[in-house]
Design goal:
Rossmann fold, 2 domains, 314 residues
């Protein structure tokens, strides 16, 4: 697989169980088995201790020595951790002192042209996420390359990979992103020996219309919407040589439908697009990808539309 030749793995400093690093090694091994040029893996750790910055007793030089000492200790810990994995994949270590991990990650992605960022993820507090956006979500919104958020689910052979598409839209951007997601799903499914499924949701009758217009036929409306999405899905599946049997169209919110289909199929991975919404709209509305991540028990691969430029690139 040629797209992922340079992988950045975000290390979790709170544990020795690095599921993101193990996933990267597994993925790189599969890629290397199929490609002549080896995939490079970098293990990256961003550390920061606010108390070191606030210590007025120490001089700036002394604080710098303490920071460098912490970085050195963490790098030694990381190197030992990698050695214990006993892998043939060459992994280089990078440890930096930075108070905003997501910025350190994205700046490195831009500087080194990484093809993929892999990071372990955790359940987020729904209320706090409105006020304090977790690192995962910052990376999803602002990282220019694909982001693979890893959970505990394994990747057995003959598993299932889900491509979450929006076939009901006539917008060129959605068509382009649908194609990108589907191609990625097919490539990864071939790599990990899995089956590709397509999932698409569509909204039901708007409640305000049903209430304000008594003569409005909600059943007919839903049937028309379903028919439209089925036709669009069949056309999309045929274009990418995917069996119609492996297509799933349901009424409901995208995050709910995707979670239901993923649970039913016991999927190994869901691949979806994220538009990189930031600011107030992201805090209040959120992105589908972000809602999905907390509900799924499998990996999530988030892709940006072609031409996306990270706000940190300016």
């Amino acid at each position: 697989m040629e797209t992922y030749q340079n992988i950045l793995v975000v290390i979790d400093p709170t544990t020795n169980e690095q599921k993101a690093l193990k996933r990267a090694i597994d993925l790189a091994s599969k890629i290397n088995h199929n490609n002549a040029s080896p995939t490079k893996v970098s293990a990256f750790l961003s550390i920061f201790d606010f108390s070191y910055e606030m210590t007025t007793i120490l001089s700036s030089e002394e604080r710098d020595v303490m920071r460098q000492s912490m970085v050195k200790d963490k790098k030694l810990w990381l190197e030992n951790l990698i050695n214990e994995l006993n892998t043939d994949i060459e992994i280089n270590c990078q440890v930096v002192w930075h108070n905003r991990p997501f910025e350190a990650i994205i700046e490195l992605v831009i500087k080194k042209n990484y093809d993929l960022v892999i990071k372990g993820t955790h359940q987020h507090d729904k209320f706090k996420s409105v006020i304090f956006t977790p690192t995962d979500w910052h990376i999803l919104r602002k990282c220019p390359c694909p982001v693979l958020l890893v959970k505990e689910h394994e990747w057995p052979s003959n598993g299932n990979v889900i491509a979450a598409v929006n076939v009901g839209s006539d917008e060129a951007e959605h068509h382009s992103l649908n194609a990108k997601i589907t191609k990625e799903a097919k490539q990864l499914a071939q790599l990990i020996q899995a089956n590709v499924h397509l999932v698409n949701s569509f909204p039901g009758t708007p409640v305000n219309i049903a209430i304000e217009i008594p003569e409005f036929n909600s059943t007919e409306y839903n049937e028309t919407m379903l028919k439209h999405h089925k036709q669009a899905m069949i056309a999309h599946a045929n274009k990418f040589d995917i069996s119609v049997v492996n297509t799933h169209i349901k009424e409901g919110l995208p995050e709910t439908v995707i979670e239901q289909v993923a649970a039913k199929l016991d999927a190994e991975m869901v691949i979806l697009g994220t538009i990189g919404r930031t600011g107030i709209s992201a805090a209040l509305i959120g992105n589908t990808a972000e809602h999905v991540i907390d509900q799924l028990n499998c990996d999530v691969l988030a892709l940006k539309p072609d031409g996306y430029i990270s706000p940190l690139a300016y």
